[in-house]
Amino acid sequence: MAEHILFLTGKLAEKQLRQILEEMAPEFEYTVHQLGLSVAALMTADMIRRRLKDTYGANRILVPGRCRGDLETLSKDLGLPVERGPEELRDLPEYFGRKSRKPDLSRYDLRIFAEIVDAPHLDMDGILRQAADYRNHGADVIDIGCLPATPFPHLEAAVAALKAEGHRVSVDSLETDDLVRGGKAGADFLLSLHEDSLWIADEVASTPILIPAKHGDLDSLDRAIAGMRSRDRSFLVDPILDPIHFGFADSLVRYHETRRRHPEVEIMMGVGNLTELTHADTAGINAMLLGVCSELGIRAILATQVSKHARRAVAEADLARRILFAARELGALPKHMGDGLMALHERAPFPYTEAEIRELAQAIRDPSYRIQISAEGIHIFNRDGFHSATDPFELYPSLRVEHDGGHAFYLGVELARAQIAWQLGKRYSQDETLDWGCAVDPPAATVDPHAYKPAGSTLAQSTGD
């Protein structure tokens, strides 16, 4: 017997919902029931409990994605599952097409070493704060970056303090004295050793990251690998990634060749020479480089956040490794795995055409302004009129809020968001902040789908319930 789904909606969305379901021609049976309120987004669990008198023989109930309240308790009360659907009706086909195979982004097999590049100049509190921030963004190892010819009297104390906070620690230096000190202080990893400094591995228990003795010399890297194998010690190798126009393509070849020569060794890639030294958004750079890592079985990266434009590099790498792991496990392209790396654009920014928005506007019977965007521009409307523009300033004379400062301020904020979303090709939902993916930390107090969210300023009116 086919599944029977009951769709609950509001008056304004009912026609669109029926049309979308008809176009979908789904395998399941369905019933559409509107609960007697105008705006579906204002639906709550308590409202459903009071107003729904018949479940029409359904096996489960689908409510709008912005429906608030405790659906788990409501499900128990009604005796069948009640679930949230997508926030936009136009996403309903995709919701049903992908729901059962939503990728698991909790898994990854790549470690992120996050470097505190100016550690000698930071006091202990500064080092611990930076490490905590890196860990919150996904770092697995905190790399203490030493500086050439710069005293670091508190190196040992820094290693000890980070270990006490539960961090795995690496010490990164070109000076053998720093590496020995860090290793004896209890560092888990040392960056970097080469064939002429392998003696350090005989004095400390830290796992070394091996590099060529001379830049680009893979034969010297081979000898260092042989030296560590003769010691029966674990290690990683890093052929060194070069910046664009300074050997980048050749350095990618070196990683490929290292993997060919040593199918089983653990490899690290220092991605900072691309993220830091290329003035382009780092999310895309991280995605591409971690794609190379995924294909070559490189399971460690060294990330930095020195340049202001690279301030989110660790968080981006964390999400990229999860997306690429899921794609590789599924034997799929890294598409439809998660949208967090698309900070500026979205796959489907305009769910409705201008004609469809105009049709919706014809059903509005109240003075509250609704704002939507389409490929054509920004649209604001209420019962008194429909106005469109690409510049919010063009709309102001038509809004009649010159004597209502609070409302004017609210509409200014919302129209600015709408313009940004239209310009970039992002989703815009009235009364919601724009989604910038992993480029921005989520708000400290995230929206709880079980909590009741106040209606936005334009919808703060009685629902007649």
Q: Would you mind describing this structure in some detail?
A:
With 465 residues, the chain is α/β, with parallel strands linked by helices. The chain has 3 domains: 98 residues, Rossmann fold; 220 residues, Alpha-Beta Barrel (TIM Barrel), CATH 3.20.20; 86 residues, no CATH class. 37% of the residues lie in helices and 15% in strands. Strands 5-6-7-8-9-10-11-12 form an 8-stranded parallel beta barrel, surrounded by 5 helices. Strands 2-1-3-4 form a 4-stranded parallel sheet. A 3-stranded antiparallel sheet has the order 13-14-15. Helix 6 packs parallel to helix 7 and helix 12 packs across helix 13. The longest helix has 20 residues. The relative contact order is 0.09. It comes from Methylococcus geothermalis. InterPro entries: Dihydropteroate_synth-like_sf, DUF6513. This is Dihydropteroate synthase.
